[in-house]
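Render this sequence as a predicted structure.
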Amino acid sequence: MEQALRLADRVNTYRNRTKHLPATQQSGLQGEQAAYFHLRRLGFIVVARRWTHAHTHGEIDLIAWENETLCILEVKTRNSRAAFAAEFAVDEKKQQTLHRMAHAYLRQLPWKHNQQPNLTPRFDVVSIYLQPDGHHDIRLQRDAFR
């Protein structure tokens, strides 16, 4: 499946669908895809990618379940190792946005008997470092912030 999606990405690039995006967005999408497959290999069940809500500003890169834990995942992609790790780019403002988005996501789920359980999502950060040879250094930081 991973190979099929990579082939589809190459076809999309060939068809000039993503070439109009800035390089940072192109590498960000590449990083999100790498994070998606990495998490699946770790046993996560990914239920949403690039989730948005009509009445809440922001986006959640990935939403997944790890066993009984709902995980809200922020993906940070870098083309090189900068002076500081990619996960440090998830500042307080971004954390607040992710909290707001997570609550919006939980509110819209169809709960049994319309009663939302006392569910506290875990906030994880996935750092992706793209390598020139096509391989990626992927770091998952579970429970990165509360």
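Summary. The mean pLDDT is 85. The radius of gyration is 16 Å.
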